[in-house]
Amino acid sequence: MSNGVLLLIDVQRDFLPGGALGVPGGDEIVPLINQSAPRYAFVLATRDFHPADHCSFATNHAGRKPGDVVEVNGIDQVLWPPHCVQGTAGAEFAPGMDAGLITKTFLKGIDPGLDSYSAFFDNARKRSTGLAEYLDAQGCDRLDLCGLATDYCVLWSVLDARSLGIGVTVLADACRGIDLKPGDTERAFARMQKAGATLARFVKG
Ligand code: VGL
Ligand code: ZN
Known about the structure:
- It is a single chain.
- The protein is an alpha/beta fold and 205 residues long.
- Helix content is 20%, strand content 22%.
- It is built from four helices and eight strands.
- A six-stranded parallel β-sheet has the order 5-2-1-6-7-8. A two-stranded antiparallel ribbon has the order 3-4.
- A hairpin with a 2-residue loop joins β3 and β4.
- The protein is globular.
């Protein structure tokens, strides 16, 4: 499990405990990434990168609160606290993560009217982040993946990768979930496996 491509999903300050959309245990994955990333030939990363008027923010929907689901342009949208706003500290990589290891970063969730959980496409599959084209140009047809959050951006990135025929190994010990509904994280791992992803760990045993 080395010399390949590692894709880090949204390892950003706002997704760490204490952040705007803190994922429980999210900080625990940072040392695993720092230890393991140097083994890879390429380390790619995504950042959730929303404008302040983004449609996923509960504050932009009168009378709504985080966790509510609304329809935006015909797509079900879970509402979140404002997070990863472009130009804010919360949108930066997790402090303590060695960002010098990262070869290239892909931004997602930039369109105010459309969310983007997947590293590859927005939730309407209208626009590519450029990741698929980049991997294609590199002749890369498999990757290892980890990050935040298991039940949203990790899940949809894995499903899109599989739909593109890309082989995926998910480093489950370097993923953490939100569990808006209890069990979401476990169900997400099961869906990834069903889609043909392999589950593994950075740290064995
Ligand atoms: C994410 C909810 C909203 C994620 C991003 O990175 O999993 N989750 N925006
Ligand atoms: Zn987001």
